[in-house]
Amino acid sequence: MRATLRWAHADLRTHRGEALFLVLATTGVITALLLASALFGYAANPWQRVFAQTNGAHVWIHARGDADPADLERLRDLDEPEG
Asked: Around Cβ 48, how many Cβ atoms within 10 Å?
């Protein structure tokens, strides 16, 4: 192990330009992968931001014009859950 590290260190000292390019290329690849994973996580679930902003799911009831108004009044009077 020690010999391998000495060999790698000597090689990097000898080829400074190539070593710099290797570090820059590795940094670029890692940055691109981190950015891609962050953007994929955001794009994979577009409703997550809306869900978080509205504090959870909500129910919308669309009634037709011929619905019984008494039924709609009973729905309107329901208590909201605490939370």
From this structure: 11
Give the pLDDT confidence of 21-69 residue by residue, as tens digits: 999 999 999 999 999 998 887 788 777 777 777 776 666 767 677 767 7
> Are 57 and 51 spatial neighbours (Cβ–Cβ below 8 Å)?
yes
Instruction: Report, in angstroms and rounded to the nearest whole number, the Rg of the chain calculated over CA atoms.
Output: 30
DSSP state of 1: -
The pTM score is 0.49
SS3 58: coil
* CA separation for the pair 27, 34 (Å, rounded): 11
**Alpha-carbon torsion 62, 65, 68, 73, what sign?**
positive
Taken as a whole, the chain contains a residue count of 83
Q: How far apart are CA 48 and CA 42, in angstroms?
A: 8
